[in-house]
Amino acid sequence: MSISLDPAAVLWSTDAAQRAGRPLLVLLHGYGADERDLFGLIPYLPPEFAVAAVRAPLAPPFPAPGYSWYPIENLEDRDPAHTTAAAAGLVAWADDAASTHPAIGLLGFSQGAAVSLQAMRLEPQRFAFTVNLSGYATPGELPRDAELAEAKPPVFWGRGTADDVIPAFLVEHTTQWLPAHTELSGRVYPGLTHSVSEQELSDVRVFLDKRVAELG
Questions:
Q1: What CATH superfamily classification does 7-215 receive?
Q2: How buried is 215 (Cβ within 10 angstroms: 0-12 exposed, 13-18 middle, 19+ buried)?
Q3: What is the mean pLDDT of each successive set of 10 residues along the chain, which is 216 residues long?
Q4: Taking the complete model, does pTM exceed 0.90, yes or no?
Q5: Helical residues (DSSP H) of the chain, grouped into ranges
Q6: How far apart are CA 186 and CA 180, in angstroms?
């Protein structure tokens, strides 16, 4: 099962002629936001990337604004089906819209970060790296997890000590899961809530600059 992304609801950093042949960085917003939310990060990102900010496919329950990748009401539910459905939709969009790019990386916040990691688990060879901001790895096994663990793609995971949104069991699971399956660059930011700081963005830039160098 997958949930389709709206190709008309994608913000691109440049037009098609200027982005063809460049590595693509896909931005995935968090719960209750939209494709404009992370688009403001572009000045902090390496200019070598073409950037696409995609919109999540679901509308959260009223009165919450924006869009969501999957229902947030049952985070204690360890069934990965909802996250996997959203990730499958992202993979389908990437196969269609990002075919002219030599490499694809993902950068997600909160729900978007969870979907980014899940997409990498679905297609370990499709995505070059993931930036996980205030997110988590979804519990449960997927068929290609062993392949991912062998490939160990680079992942940046940043989170704050004052983040009270992500349940503790998900943080603990992610702490164990990421080093076993990825080449992890992790940083915990004292006092940071469920948000992104200037220091974190600086660390993300260092991580992404390394990816640019590796991609050539």
A1: Alpha/Beta hydrolase fold, catalytic domain (3.40.50.1820)
A2: middle
A3: 85 92 96 95 96 94 87 68 94 88 96 97 96 96 97 98 94 97 97 97 98 93
A4: yes
A5: 16-19, 81-97, 111-122, 145-151, 168-181, 198-215
A6: 13
